[in-house]
Give the backbone structure.
Amino acid sequence: MASTLHSAVSSLIKPRDSYSASPRTGFIVFSQVRFSGYRPVRCSVQLSWPEQDAVVLEAKQGIERVHSIGADAPNKDGYKRGVPVFVMLPLDTVSMDGSLSRSRAMTASLVALKSAGVEGVMVDVWWGLVEKDGPLKYNWEGYEELVRLAEKVGLKLQVVMSFHQCGGNVGDSCSIPLPPWVLEEMRENPDLVYTDRSGRRNPEYISLGCDSLPVLRGRTPIQVYSDYMKSFRDNFREYLGNVIVEIQVGMGPCGELRYPSYPEANGTWRFPGIGEFQCYDKYMRASLAAAAEANGKKEWGLGGPHDSGSYNQHPEETGFFRREGTWNSEYGKFFLEWYSGMLLEHGEKILTEAERVFQGTGTRLSGKVAGIHWHYKTRSHAAELTAGYYNTRNRDGYISIAKMFGRHGVIFNFTCMEMRDWEQQEAANSSPEGLVRQVKMATKAAKVELAGENALERYDGEAYSQVLAANRNEAGCRLSAFTYLRMNKRLFEADNWRNLVEFVRCMSEGSEQPRLPECDRTGTELYVGHIKQMEVAKTR
């Protein structure tokens, strides 16, 4: 299985060197490379992406770099003017047996990313892989190999503490369940997982209702997460702050601080459905009942809203979310305060532990918030409410999250930066641009750094241009970093790769252009065939 990898690999060769290769052996063929100042030279590289037999590109010592990373160049005030770009690695970067997948192809890919000016890569460190052999039995071997490789290539790492399962959501290309011993506990006690009104259980993530209860063989979920992070810190201490520059703390499904209100598995939810409240396991019900009784309204604690509809309905089809619905009643406000408050408390608990574990290591912490942009134009913002974000037309639901992140020095990572309003279907009442503006204002008010991601795999110039537009300096609201989703074979196709390289340049140089420039899109072609032996014949 092969694809075409197009790369600016100018950091691997000397300027104006010319290389040729025998067509029989598939050796490297280099043609003359031209410089263009800070602009990356447009070269293309063809590499195979096989499952077992892969290409390795090795950088040679003393080689002159062709292009600089603009983010490293300070402006006249002494501050870095650009935004570092990271690229997400494949979900199955570490295999089920705990080893680094396709290590030789990974090496070639990382070298290509480095040559393009990318700052680093992001990787999910799956709880279901590392602690699968039993409580407190950790296997970090595959991730250790990746960290050493990133250090050798010269890339930084953003590491995600992924306490959720992989599979069943947008973009999930493989299945990595929670640790087997955790699944066994779930089978014995189904209320450990989130549950909707009809009793449907969701095993993506442990219900926050039991955060402080010793339900995992004598440990609470928060203790389990903390022990996991401590083990990571102790195993990777020498890399923290230099190679590993950021720890993104998973706090829910997809690693995001939210409820699993819109699960795609088995066709449960389809865009742009409003989703459903996830508060029907016995622990969440007990918490709701206690809150209602404390409020003097015991009847409010019998369950969630009875008229909130089902996953694939629209707001106006429900009594709770419609324009003048009960979401804005005394009961609605009580329920939504409790529901969103439980999510905030969950984030507070995990981030408190993460801050304690990684304090003094030189590594930054971040947390991810989902970009739920559908039905944003309605009064109730139904899809946000079911996910746990109490954000309506007359209430800002993101400022409280930003302030909570700020208390722990956590970067606010937000998705859907690449989306435009006009791209969305009319029935969705969507406004990703309006949502991004609101989040930028909330993080600015809370004095919290904002980083961004694209929500869906996009390779076109329009998507990159929208990220550049979202990064415009609106009274100090620039992004602190951007992480591109995701590295795969399509990214390395000719046009896609050129778009990425130009995007990285624009971000690193602090460009505020709303569109990627059409200039500098052509250059000398550099072809590297499917190499089985690294033998280079140099011709003058």
Remarks:
- The first strand starts at residue 19 and ends at 20.
- Residues 189 and 215 are 9 Å apart (CA to CA).
- Residues 1-79, 517-540 have pLDDT under 50 and may be disordered.
